[in-house]
Amino acid sequence: MYKKKMKKTLVIGATVLDLIIQIDHLPRTSEDIHIQKQRMALGGCAYNAADILRKFEIPYYLLSPIGSGRYASIVENMLKEKGMVSPVKIEEEDNGFCLCMVEKDGERTFVVHHGVEYGFQKAWVTDQMKKEVDSVYISGFEVEESNGEEIISFLEENREFQVYFAPGPRLGKIQPERISRIFACNPIIHLNEEEAMELSKEKDYEHAAKAIYDITGNMVIITLGKAGAYYYEDGQGHLVPGREATVVDTIGAGDSHIGAIMSCRKLGFSMQQSVECANKVSAAVVGVQGSSLNEEQFKQAIGQIPR
Question: Which pTM value belongs to this model?
Answer without folding.
Answer: 0.91
